[in-house]
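To fix ideas, we give here one paired sequence and structure record:
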Amino acid sequence: MKIVLIGEAPSRAASADEALLGRVGRKIAQLSGLTLEEYLTTYERLNLLPNPISWYVNPRIALRLEAQIMMESLRGKTCILLGAKVAHAFNFSSQPLVWQRRFSLRVAVVPHPSGRNRFYNDKNSAERVRAFLTELCATAARKTLQELPEA
């Protein structure tokens, strides 16, 4: 079973067809302890919005609407939400690295891995994300996601 990784929107430079594949994808792969090829097979990668965020008059409303539409297809899956904006779109807390359960979803929020996020400047914070993602990937590789901590 793949872990669902949900981002906000593609960057202006990224292709809308390949969610979370550019710099952000490489960073997540590195934090997960995976090669890019392993990253592509481990995670199902989605963006809430199909176009760069600058295309929307009110991105917050667009994010919430897309999250509501996407919710049904995510039931019963384990998801990683990238950043507070995505967490809030799904009505989850943005507290990082804590499992939450609602709407038949099990989710955790990882701070957005963009180069603008200062969270990763702190080595301890980056190491916490790395440990969280590598354990999650190892568990997924054993195909026993039931072993994940309960929310």
